[in-house]
Amino acid sequence: MTTVPQDRARLQAALDNLTDALENHMEACLARSGEADVAVQAAYTALRHAAAQYDDLLFELRDEVTPWEFPEGPHVDIEYEDSDAEPAAVGVFVRRDYDISEAGELLRAGREAYGEIYPADPEEAAVADVTHAGRALYQLLHAYGVDGLDLRAEGSGLQPRGGTVWVQELAEGDTETLVNEPFGVIDDDMLIYRLDEVVEVDEER
Fold first, then answer.
1. Cα distances (Å, whole numbers) of residue 174 to 89, 167, 169, 177, 191
2. Sheet of strand 90-100, all strands in order from the earlier edge strand to the far edge
3. CA distance linking residue 12 with residue 57, whole number of Å
4. SS3 108
5. Which residues are registered as beta bridge partners of 92?
6. What residues does 86 pair with on adjacent strands?
7. What is the three-class DSSP state of 116?
8. Which of 21, 64, 85, 159 could form a disulfide with 101 if both were Cys (CB 3.0 to 4.6 A apart)?
9. How far apart (Å, rounded) are the C-alpha atoms in residues 93 and 184?
10. What is the CA radius of gyration of the chain?
11. 174-203: pLDDT as tens digits
């Protein structure tokens, strides 16, 4: 099996991201301020993300795997001031940011996703349906979900920039806002748990 230059470049970029994430994780661990250090949590998440992307790409291009497993990232439980408090309902708010680094690749990936959903349709139907970035993202999310999109991001013309997950207690009536005002109920005072991930992008790559 011959490795084409484009595949080698993609693997090298994924490896560079992984080694950078390893360095950052080590530095964060050496400088940690306690058991729930936010910088260590963010570095762990970035390392897990980079390792999973390298592993996935290696399998996609060469049918090879790494010896790593990818357990869930560490969680930090922030205790309520009232230790007896138990929330009746919680909301989980997720944001993930991406640069569109290659618009053509994003369209290609969106059309492939269309083909996954409608395998009986001809290729021309996918081309006609996915004509811009928004439609490509719609089809990717439709086919693979949010987590599936994240796993396929770099191979779909997207450059991950990071994300954040918030878990907060919902007040009475907040659950009724899910459709009309889903993020209008966000309240720092109701926050139970938060995990941030920031991906530093090397602009020269």
1. 9, 14, 9, 6, 14
2. 90-100, 158-169, 191-198
3. 10
4. helix
5. 167
6. none
7. helix
8. 159
9. 11
10. 20
11. 989 998 898 898 887 788 877 777 776 555
